[in-house]
Amino acid sequence: MAALPKRIIKETERLISDPVPGITAYPDEANLRAFTVTMNGPDSSPYEKGIFDLELYLPDDYPMCPPKVRFLTKIYHPNIDKLGRICLDVLKDNWSPALQIRTILLSIQALLASPNPDDPLANDVADDWKKDEPKAIEVAKEWTAKYAKAKE
């Protein structure tokens, strides 16, 4: 495996020494471009008390292209599909090499706090959200309790 760029080493060191509140991200020992991420559901969101597992991968052309991130924990969210893929502008068209892993993780956490059914990846969930938001929030809470190792 090629040596890691200094930027990835620096970002990794900072993630470990100065973690983002509610998020842990550790590189895989076998592949330092692959991270195991644990994210707490934001307070006052349907995902509160949930602990979500994600995987984050830095492609060879990072930071010129965004990291690949997906949820491993099942989640009921209009912007996250059944495969865990995330619809988030900074992971696609609004990516900038100035962004860092921690910025992306904070953006994903913010997306959990404020789902956007008008830019869905999971159309069925977005439709539910638009038709009956209180019911959709209830389902999101149920899924969080069932799949996201929710803490009491």
Tags for this model:
152 residues, alpha+beta, Ubiquitin Conjugating Enzyme, 4-stranded antiparallel sheet, globular, Ubiquitin-conjugating enzyme E2 13
What's the short version?
The protein has helices spanning 6-17, 101-113, 123-131, 133-147, and strands spanning 23-27, 34-40, 51-57, 68-71.
CATH superfamily: Ubiquitin Conjugating Enzyme
> Measured on Cα atoms, how large is the radius of gyration?
16 Å
What is the CATH C-level name? Alpha Beta
CATH fold name: Ubiquitin Conjugating Enzyme
**H/E element sequence:** HEEEEHHH
Q: Tell me the overall shape.
A: globular
Name the CATH architecture.
Answer: Roll
Count the E strands.
4
Q: Span from first to last CA? A: 43 Å
The spatial strand order of the largest sheet comes to 1-2-3-4
| Main sheet makeup | 4 strands, antiparallel
Mean pLDDT: 94
Separate helix tally: 4
| Total discrete domains | 1
Low-pLDDT sequence parts: none
Structural class: alpha+beta
User: Beta-strand level of the residues, as a percent range?
Assistant: 15-25%
Helix content: 25-40%
What do you see in this structure?
It comes from [Candida] jaroonii. This is Ubiquitin-conjugating enzyme E2 13. The protein has 152 residues and is of the alpha+beta class. It has a single domain, classed as Ubiquitin Conjugating Enzyme (Roll), CATH 3.10.110.10. The chain is built from four helices and four strands, in the order αββββααα. The chain has helices spanning 6-17, 101-113, 123-131, 133-147; strands at 23-27, 34-40, 51-57, 68-71. Strands 1-2-3-4 form a four-stranded antiparallel beta sheet. A hairpin with a 6-residue loop joins strand 1 and strand 2 (34-40). Helix 3 crosses helix 4. The radius of gyration is 16 Å and the shape is globular. The mean pLDDT is 94.
